[in-house]
Amino acid sequence: MGLALLAALLVDRQMGQPQLSLLLLLSGLASGVVCGLGIPLLQRLRMGQTIRVDGPQSHQGKSGTPTMAGLLLVPCGVVLGGWVDAGDGRLLLLAATGLGFMAIGGLDDWQSLRHKKNQGLRPCAKLLLQGLVAIVFLAKAAQQGWLPTQVSFPLGGVLELGPLIWPLGLWTFLAESNATNLTDGLDGLAAGCGAVILLGMAIQLMVRGNNGDPALAGFAAAMAGAYLGFLMHNRRPAKAFMGDTGSLALGGILAGLALLSDSLWALLVMGAVPMAESLSVVLQVGWFKLSRRWWGQPRRLLRMAPLHHHFELSGYSEVTVVVGFWLAAVASVALGLLVLAG
User: Fold this and answer.
1) Could you report the per-residue pLDDT of 156-207, keeping only the tens digit for each?
2) Backbone phi, psi, residue 12, to 5°
3) Is 236 left (phi over 0), alpha (psi -120 to 50) or beta?
4) How far does CA 63 lie from the centroid of its chain?
5) Gyration radius of the chain's alpha carbons
6) What is the DSSP track for 100-149?
7) How distant, in Å, are the alpha carbons of 49, 206, 235 from that of 242?
8) pTM of the model
9) Do 70 and 245 form a contact (C-beta atoms < 8 A)?
10) What's residue 56's pLDDT?
């Protein structure tokens, strides 16, 4: 009875569509309360983050801050998001995928805590596990007929990919989950940007007319609320970090949403901040290796990668960098919605 009442509150009885604002609010409150109650437990379990020694020196004071708070916030989002339409199997698949990426991140975080250093799973093992979860998602979605085999463009035109959607889907999962993971480096950065991108995806899924998808929009709004609720505890000075547990789940859910709703273009535009963070690492490493080969002396493009550390070491405060990246995320979402409207 309680679940039925909640579902009725979340869905407009006349339009049969989820109430995104109410979902956002309820999920945010649930996540805020659960995280508030759970963070002291993480402290008692001594799940203190080990800060990388080669990172900015200003971050060394964050050592010992509880991590793995993704275990608290992600279930809040996927459970509430799943209630939007309990009969829609896509939501269950998204929830399972998010929890799968959360488990991979949890294993990575646990390895870091156990060895007391900022290095968990080996990169190849981490990628393999991410790939396995992505393949299970793609196989189930294809079997049920939920996986579009084309990429639609906002200004018209469709690129039919057929079976090539599989490698593109796999790449999307790996790229997005690792990009959101790299974004998680400052207090409130990944949680704030992730919530903005999820909300942008929700809005574009509601305003696409006949191609809209209210159920997936509701799921995205619930996840946005969960990350906003966690942000209450993650803003500077952070009381807890989401860890890979939360950041990998964020990327996995964004990738799954984009693939199920034929919204890869929207994710590309709206997810500009995580993409820039990921590209900054690729360019930094690539230029470092090339310059050493060409001139015998390695050189750097940035003071430090990912990109947010470059701005920190350029003299900007952590709060300034985080707010700037939030605004960049808002701008990229607004651009995505404007392109859709055009």
Assistant:
1) 788 999 999 999 999 999 999 999 999 998 999 999 999 999 999 999 998 8
2) -70, 120
3) beta
4) 23
5) 20
6) HHHHHHHHHHHHHHHHTSS--S-HHHHHHHHHHHHHHHHHHHHHHT-S-S
7) 10, 29, 12
8) 0.92
9) yes
10) 65
